[in-house]
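Reminder to self: keep the SMILES exactly as supplied, no canonicalising. Ligand is NAP.
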Amino acid sequence: MSGTVRWGVLATGGIAATFTADLLAMKESGAEVVAVASRTEASAKAFAERFGIERAYGSWAELVADDTVDVVYIATPHSAHREAAGLALEAGKHVLCEKAFTINAREARELVDLARERGLFLMEAMWTYCNPLIRRMTELVRDGAIGEIRTVQADFGFAGTFGADHRLRDPALGGGALLDLGVYPVSFAQLLLGEPDRVQAEALLSPEGADLNTGILLGWDSGATALLACSIVGNLQTSASVTGTAGRIDFPQGFFYPEHFVLHRHDHEPETITTGSGPQGLSGMQYEAAEVNRAILAGEKESPLVPLEGSLAVMRTLDAVRDRIGVRYPADDRA
Ligand SMILES: NC(=O)c1ccc[n+]([C@@H]2O[C@H](COP(=O)([O-])OP(=O)(O)OC[C@H]3O[C@@H](n4cnc5c(N)ncnc54)[C@H](OP(=O)(O)O)[C@@H]3O)[C@@H](O)[C@H]2O)c1
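C-alpha cells returned for the bound complex:
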C-alpha cells in the first residue's frame, strides 16, 4: 500500500453521502474514494456520479472483490453491519463500520474476532472519540482538572415524525432511539468511566417494539453514576456534562460534535476551551477518516482512539439497556 488509502463505500444513504463528502475534501491527506456499492446498480451509479467515484457496483460482493479497495466504509442500517463488515473482512479488506457497531454484543464480538484472525483493521465509526475537543477534554480529566469523576450527564434526542415503516421504528433494522442516538451518551460516559458495573433503564416503546424515549442510569463500583437519555419523540438538549470532586466540564448542545466546552474549576473563573479546528465547512467526519488513514498506513489493526474493547463494552451496555426495557430484535434470535 502506498501513502494513499483507497476507500470503498458500502451503501448510499444519508451518512454515506456525508462521510464521502468529508473524505473527498481530504484528498491531500491521502484518502481516495475509488468505488461504491449499493443493493441496486442504479443507486450505486447515481451516488458515483454525484461524487465523481470511478466504479459503481450493484452488489456488496463486487465491492469487496475489488483489488483497488483498501478499506470499506459500512453505512447500512445497524442490522446489516455484521453481514456487510463480515463480508469485507472475509475478503481481506480493512473496515470502518458505522455506529451502533452492530445489533448486539454477540455480533460485535464476531466481527472483532474475525478482524483479529485475519490481521485486518476494524473500527466502529464513533467519530466523537476522534474529535479534537473530546480528546482535549479526556486529557484534562486524566490530568485531574476536575478531580475524581462523580457524575456524567448526557442526552441525545429529537422529535421526529417517523412513520411505522421508517428504519428508526423497524425492529428488523435495529430501530429505536437507543442504537441510533443513545449510543452517543453511552459512549461518552464509557469513554470517561469504562464499562459500568450496573445498568438500569426505563423506556416508552412504539407499537412495533422500538424504543421511542429512553432513560438510562449507569453505576460504577467507584460510586460514579451516569444519567443518560435518548429520544426520537422529544427535542432533548443533546448536551453533556462531567462533574468531578474539583469541578465540572459542560458541553453545550451538540456535544457529540462540539465547537467548544466550558471548564469550571473550583475557585477559578469558568474557562471556555476551543481548539480552533471547528467545522471548517466539513461535517466532522474528517477526524475519524484521518485516524483510519493514519492507522492503516502505520499497519495498526485498531485505533487507540476507538479501541475495539471499548466498542464491545458499549454494545454490552446497549444489550443490558434493551434487556431492562424489553426491546428485542429479530437478529437477537439468530443462531
Ligand atoms: N456517524 C453519524 O453521525 C451517523 C449519522 C447518521 C447515521 N449513522 C449510522 O449510519 C447507518 C446508516 O444510517 P443512515 O442515516 O445513512 O440511513 P439511511 O439514510 O436509511 O441509509 C442507509 C442505506 O443502507 C442501505 N440499506 C437500507 N436498508 C437496508 C437493508 N435492509 N439492508 C441493507 N442495506 C440497507 C441503503 O443503501 P443502498 O440502497 O445503497 O443499499 C440505504 O440508503 C446507521 O447505522 C446509523 O446509525 C451515523
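Points to follow up:
The two ends are 38 Å apart (CA to CA).
The first helix runs from residue 14 to 24.
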